[in-house]
Amino acid sequence: MITLTSAQLDGWIAMIVWPLSRILALIASAPITGNQQFPASAKIGLAVLITALVAPTLPASTVIDPGSGAGILLLIREVLIGLAMGLAMRVVFAGVSMAGDLIGLQMGIGFAQFYDPQSNSQAPVTGQFLGLIATLTFLSLNGHLMLIATLVESFQNTPVDSAGALAGNWMLLAQWGGTIMRAALLLSLPLIAVLLITNIALGVLSRAAAQLNIFAIGFPITLGVGFIALLIFLPAMIPVLDKLFNEGLQTMLRIGTFTPR
Questions:
Q1: Which member of 13, 105, 124, 161 has the greatest number of CB atoms within 10 A?
Q2: Residue 213 placed within a domain
Q3: How many domains does the chain have?
Q4: Which domain holds residue 59?
Q5: Residue 18, Cβ neighbours under 10 Å: how many?
C-alpha cells in the first residue's frame, strides 16, 4: 500500500508551482510572448513545458506549505521576479520604438500611426517599423533561446526558497530603464542630425528665395531625405541592437539574482 504524507505532497506541489509562477510571469511580460495577440493557452502551455523540463534540474528547496502565509508570500515573490525579468527585456524594445518615434517626429510623419501589438496602442509608423526590425533581429540571434537560458540560470543563482533583498532589484530595473532611454536617443541621433541639417538648408533656401513655397517643397524633401538616411543607417543599427539585447539579458540575470541578507 502506497502512503503519502502531507510533507511529500507539499514538496511535489512546491517543486512545480513556484518555478511555474516565475516562468509564467516572465512569459507574460517578455516581448513577443507578452503581446495580447499571443494566445493565453499558448503562454500557459509554454510555461508548463519549460517548467516540466527545468524543475527536475533545480536545487532541492525547503518544504513549505503552499497554502500557508509563507507559501503565498513566496508565490508573490516569484511572480514579481518573473515580471521584473521580462520587463527588463521589454524595455529594450520600448527604447527602439522610442528611437523610431523621434525619427518620425523629425521626418514630419509623426501623425502617421498604426496599431502596435507590443503596447496595444497606436504608434508612429517609424516606431512600428523599427520595432519589427528589433523583433526579427531578436529572433534571428536566437534571443528567445537565450532568454530561456537566462531564466534557467536565475534559478541556479536564486533558488526558490533563497532569502534576499528585493528593493535593490527594482532600483536596478529603474536604472536600466534610464539607460535604455539614453540608448534610444543615441540610436536615433544620426538621423536626427541629417534631418536637422536638411531643415537648416531649407531655412536658408527660404531666405534666399522668398517666393518659393517652402511648405509645399519642404515636406517631400524632408520625407525623402529621412527615408534615404534610414536606409543607409539601418545596417549599422543591427550591431547596436545585438549589444542592447546582450545587455538586456545580463540585466535580467542581475534582476533575478537576490542580494543576500
A1: 124
A2: yes
A3: 1
A4: 6-255
A5: 26
